[in-house]
Amino acid sequence: MKLLILGAGGVGSAAAKIAARRTFLSSVVVADYDLARAQKTVADVDDPRFHATAVDASDQSAVEALIGEQSIDAVLGATDPRFTMPIFRAALATKIHYLDMAMSLSRPHATDPYRQTGVKLGDEQFALATEWETSGKLALVGIGVEPGLADVFARYASDNLFSEIDELGVRDGANLTVDGYEFAPSFSIWTTIEECLNPPVVYEKERGWFTTEPFSEPEVFDFPDGIGEVECVNVEHEEVLLMPRWLEAKRVTFKYGLGNEFIEVLKTLHKLGLDRTEPLTVGGVQVSPRDVVAAALPNPAELGEKMHGKTCAGLWVQGTGKDGRPRSTYLYHVVDNAWSMAEYGCQAVVWQTAVNPIVALELIATGEWTGRGILGPEALPAEPFLELLAGDYASPWGIKELAV
Amino acid sequence: MKLLILGAGGVGSAAAKIAARRTFLSSVVVADYDLARAQKTVADVDDPRFHATAVDASDQSAVEALIGEQSIDAVLGATDPRFTMPIFRAALATKIHYLDMAMSLSRPHATDPYRQTGVKLGDEQFALATEWETSGKLALVGIGVEPGLADVFARYASDNLFSEIDELGVRDGANLTVDGYEFAPSFSIWTTIEECLNPPVVYEKERGWFTTEPFSEPEVFDFPDGIGEVECVNVEHEEVLLMPRWLEAKRVTFKYGLGNEFIEVLKTLHKLGLDRTEPLTVGGVQVSPRDVVAAALPNPAELGEKMHGKTCAGLWVQGTGKDGRPRSTYLYHVVDNAWSMAEYGCQAVVWQTAVNPIVALELIATGEWTGRGILGPEALPAEPFLELLAGDYASPWGIKELAV
């Protein structure tokens, strides 16, 4: 399989490092708008199967040309979600497999944004479902960790642990700290702002998808493996849009363990208009305030050496177990930054995101996962994924039973 | 007298409007790097004595050339304080009077910034004191409202109310709100960040000038005229550097009634590095994050129609009265936004800043204030200033006795 990784930021370069340990890929092109960044990734990997090139991910025809020239079989989009659609369309036009870790962006409801959905996450992609079916290729959307592994957990719980599900509740938390920085997010601030300041989306079987005010339904969740209690709030996330398409559940939520300090920072950025993406004129040049916020902060992909702690992604499932009794179970995956740095030279959050699409690509390459059209991870069997992740990729996952 | 107003922002254009009501100026050139802004100010004033032109205030020789061409007698610097020094040097080189409302910028102590001063506010200006003496012209520095009117109050209290002063404490507070904005500062956010995030400076007779952590010594001060209680904290400000040069006091402080919300916003901007002025590279262009913050917020000079409330500038003096008994007195000046909008079409904070240099220029033009070299407002007699302000300029001030 010939893979194109588009985007050599934190997640893209971690994906390259993870892929280099495996033999299923015959060649990997790492492309970025910044050639030096792609070249750095390829130099770090130091594997003759890997090549660097420059491409502008916003330019669909340039992406198509690159796919054609290099006879690519599958593209992994590892850019920020602004560029999801041109890459998605280029993969469709060139009839190759497509994977991403962040779906097409939402737009709030014009008049009632905190109760009704407008354009939902992924809507622009699902609008092309028929065309993907016809192409015969697989568009595996949302196959990072969240969305991604959380959706695999949902399929696993649905198949193996529960007879009826009241709530599929993604819960994400960490105890990461960064030496020498008063404030240093461990993931793309651009994406975090997008997720956290958009109206959070919730799914209920009776009501369908609806939205709430940002930071709604705060809850303290006790994360495993020594991470402990973190304040979590509703955040717009792909899992809420994906899981109900393939799985039965009365309610689907996503709560992010932002903690109070981060929530206050995000509220302040919004209050000052610094979350906006539309360019402003500043001293004769045009810049997007959100891009300036991202540029002012340290690059999270480069903080690994200074980071300490663990990050946890997981799914809290509540409902009725296979035995007919109430059940409350947290399925989770923890990465210790010390481990991911020692093993891969990648910080925990980007490594945890990047491993999942590579596991998925291996399942596609070996024929264990097959499908056509646009599918979420929960549309495919969970067991081979979880076995490969914990086995050959040496990254275990866990199940914790909670009081009911 | 031929005046050059350099900077046609909020304060500069308010100064033009105030000056247009008076007859002591024979001509006024309003200059800005943005010609359209200068032209707008001149069009609003609608007085044949006023002319607009473009000049880059950072370019000392361009300012000198403009002064020469127009035979200017005095320049009023109304730019942000980054441009104080080139204007100050241009006035010295061309031997004309100089007035400003914000002095040359400080630089924190390299190793002990929250205890020791580094380069203090105005140090760069006072380094040229001998040259100004020799030129025979007057450089009247810090003649806005704070610094400015607060310094006039200090001189007045020192001459008329107190035999010994324990503390000269500037206290600034407001109850201004802006319709339709969650957050809309009523004064330049660039300058507010500069003032509030630099280490605050305090003067004590025994110790000289020293600094503290930002936002130190919080105190609730009860402002007059219905404004009420506002949380005030130490802030770096020119009065602390000016007053001890000419007046006897055991302690000099400046506390700004920022309120909790504003303090949290400033702390967050600092935490994210968005207070920095050094340019960042963002998508191929260079911008200063602080300029982006300013550009993202509404222009405070244009908010007057939507503003409600009053702003108060004043000086809390504690010590021994002329009668030998303990005395605690607040001298203050309140501007109601409704009044300044109705009378001048200017919002309260910029009007309150802009009126003082025009009153001072009138005293210089009529010979009531004379002097040479670099002087603060407290170096000149307070009575004619306060009489003219409350009389012909119709803007009264007050004295409130506090419990001792």
TrEMBL record, chains A, B:
Top-level taxon of the source organism: Bacteria
InterPro entries, alphabetized: NAD(P)-bd_dom_sf, Sacchrp_dh-like_C, Sacchrp_dh_NADP-bd
Domain Saccharopine dehydrogenase NADP binding as annotated: residue spans: 4-139
Pfam families, A to Z: Sacchrp_dh_C, Sacchrp_dh_NADP
Domain (Saccharopine dehydrogenase-like C-terminal) ranges: 144-390
PANTHER family recorded: CARBOXYNORSPERMIDINE SYNTHASE
Protein name: Saccharopine dehydrogenase NADP-binding domain-containing protein
Gene source species: Jatrophihabitans telluris
